Amino acid sequence: MRTVEVIVDVPAHQTNQTYDYLIQEGQRVEVGMRVHVPFGNRNVEGFVLGIKEDAQEADFKFALKPVYAVLDEEPVLTHELIELAKYMCEQTASFMINALQTILPAALKVGRKQAVKVKTQEMVVRVIDGVVQPKAKKQFEAVEFLLGQRLPYSATELRKQFSAPIVQSLLQKGAIVTEEQEVLRSVYNSSVYEEYVKQPLTAAQQVAFDAISAGRESGQAMLLHGVTGSGKTEVYMQQIEAVVASGKQAIVLVPEIALTPQMVQRFVGRFGEAVAVLHSRLSNGERFDQWRLIERGEVKIVVGTRSAIFAPLTDIGLIVIDEEHDSSYKQENMPAYDTREMALWRADFHHCSVIFSSATPSLETYARAQVDRYLYVGIHERIAGLMMPEVKVIDMREELHAKNLSMFSRDLLAAIRDRLDKKEQIILLFNRRGYATFVKCRECGYVVECPNCDISLTYHKTSNKLHCHYCEHQEPLPQTCPNCTSPYIKLFGQGTQRLTEALQQEFPDARILRMDRDTTSQKGSHQAIFDTFSNLEADILVGTQMIAKGLDFPNVTLVGVLAADQTLNFPDFRASERAFQLLTQVSGRAGRQRAGTAIIQTYMPDHYAIQFAAKHDYQGFYQEEMKIRKQHYYPPYCHVSSLKATAASAKEAYDLLFAIYQEFKDDEAIQIYKPVPALIARVNNQYTYQCLLKYKDKKHTLARLYDLQQKYYKHNKVSLSISV
Ligand code: ADP
Ligand code: ZN
Ligand code: ZN
């Protein structure tokens, strides 16, 4: 008899174990397909992970139940993706079903209610000449037109061009034949992209290119470390060209949706239709179609954000992770996988290389390049001999002394005015969205907070209301203090929207664009803002950190950073590293074709992260930061994981973590800290506690963390999440 091993989707029954079912007469089933099976007294869906061709009844403890239905005609999972899911489970202490669901697009997951439909369209598939006489002028024209087109031709288009009644007559006369045909939703229109011309490499780029070619021969992972504007993209694009020419495929990952328009433009502009795009803003249908396009082998290059690493390519020749240091490559929720690890695994499977590209590599990656685990490839000068931007650090305390209470230092204002006069562009980074960060009473100090979360509310001018950024809560702006009834309740703090207004007041004629989460909530809005700015239809781009990375606007000669300390003050051992990266990246947006300047406003001008960023000194920063990491025993000197427990009562959350703490504290291989409230301890009336683990032995710890998951996932009051 034939049986299948199935991993089922039963939230209350998590395990990495498969269950056996009997294949029935006439069922065609393969590994990687989805099936409907009985489980307890229910029907559930699951993935087939194995098939036993000649199983014996004696092999099983119980009488096997049958597979009710096979849901696919073709497997949705390749052998490789199943193995990758297993690896993901090990790396994140997660369950197999969750790993598989994470890898697949919504349309191919199991247990989903809304099915994603295959889109069809009526297409003209045949045109029969001679049926329509020339005297039926319009109809004749339509036939003539179709004879000059490549079939199938969209019937909808034809109706638009020649009217519906004309097409109807053609159909009735039998002059054309139409058919419903499947169409794949496209996510870009390749004809609107200008060609992105291949550039002859500079000497420095050529050296890097050759080093990468050599590294690729042996399938080595590499760090491509080049200052901002050194032309790293061109180098790896030409590598990809070579990969595609050899018949293989490539994946290019970008950290954030904000960067995809530019990357898509460059790749489609050079490689045309061979490019698929996968990112979180696609609809389920679009994502499904991109996935199928890739699966059918019609795509050579996949460009996308984090989850594009799971693209079902079958013959990968190169994986590029652009801005590899970016924190978005780490998934926050379980399975909390690290895209860089997934990339290394797939590269190993395909015997190809991964290129980690960055101007500011993460400490972990740079440290690996130092000990030759990654091949180090450096480009240390900008394209066309351009200088690095000059960076001025402005001490905002001195502005206060000079009685300048505005958000802008005098130097920054002067520089903006100068660039506006010269018709050059400006980027201003302000790491805070919204209008004002909070509402505070001047008399009693009361700050209006969300009733559900431990977080102050933010005023949004567009709605004229206070919003919570963590839950849905909104409320009107209070007229008097809810605490002491004083009328002196005021908006404090500043956000991108407020900044934009203040800027407009200073420079009434300037055309200002804003890019933050509020202005980019709609599909295509990143692209629109990007296009407007690069077509020189705006003078100043104001934005949150999403404008800091990678973007290449040749006409920008001034970059201003308004609250450089924001990132530094964040309670995280990576805070200095993040601040250094952000400042280096954003200054790097200046002067990509002419000399540029960056102005950093800060209250901590002497902080080493700011000082090294101002000097473009990655090495210096690395040395200093490594000393601190070593001293305090933080990565890359060890691994860290965090455990989070969330519950409706703080006590329950704490108790669970404390029990775990007791369990782990005698393990000599693991250093565990006592549970503490999470940074925002209450969100939507759910309380979160967390505790930190440090360890060197990854395998041992991961195994223990997996056991922990097994033991506590069923805890019905507290949810436990692990981030490795
Ligand atoms: P990076 O990613 O290293 O910051 P980019 O790849 O964005 O740099 O390149 C910076 C600019 O230099 C881009 O506008 C790019 O088109 C241009 N560029 C890259 N390589 C060359 C080259 N070999 N010759 C001329 N221009 C180049
Ligand atoms: Zn008050
Ligand atoms: Zn809230």
From TrEMBL:
EC number assigned by the record: 5.6.2.4
Class of this enzyme: isomerase
UniProt keyword Nucleotide-binding, yes or no: yes
Binding site for Zn(2+) 1: 441, 444, 481, 484
Cofactor list: Zn(2+)
Annotated Gene Ontology cellular component terms: primosome complex
Gene3D superfamilies per the UniProt record, alphabetical: P-loop containing nucleotide triphosphate hydrolases, PriA, 3(prime) DNA-binding domain
UniProt cross-references to CDD domains, sorted A to Z: DEXHc_priA, SF2_C_priA
GO BP terms in the entry: DNA recombination; DNA replication initiation; DNA replication, synthesis of primer; double-strand break repair
Catalytic activity: Couples ATP hydrolysis with the unwinding of duplex DNA by translocating in the 3'-5' direction; ATP + H2O = ADP + phosphate + H(+)
Keywords recorded for this protein, A-Z: ATP-binding, DNA replication, DNA-binding, Helicase, Hydrolase, Isomerase, Metal-binding, Nucleotide-binding, Primosome, Zinc
Domain Helicase C-terminal: 476-629
Family recorded in the similarity comment: Belongs to the helicase family. PriA subfamily.
Functional note: Initiates the restart of stalled replication forks, which reloads the replicative helicase on sites other than the origin of replication. Recognizes and binds to abandoned replication forks and remodels them to uncover a helicase loading site. Promotes assembly of the primosome at these replication forks.
Protein known as: Replication restart protein PriA
Organism: Culicoidibacter larvae
Gene field: priA
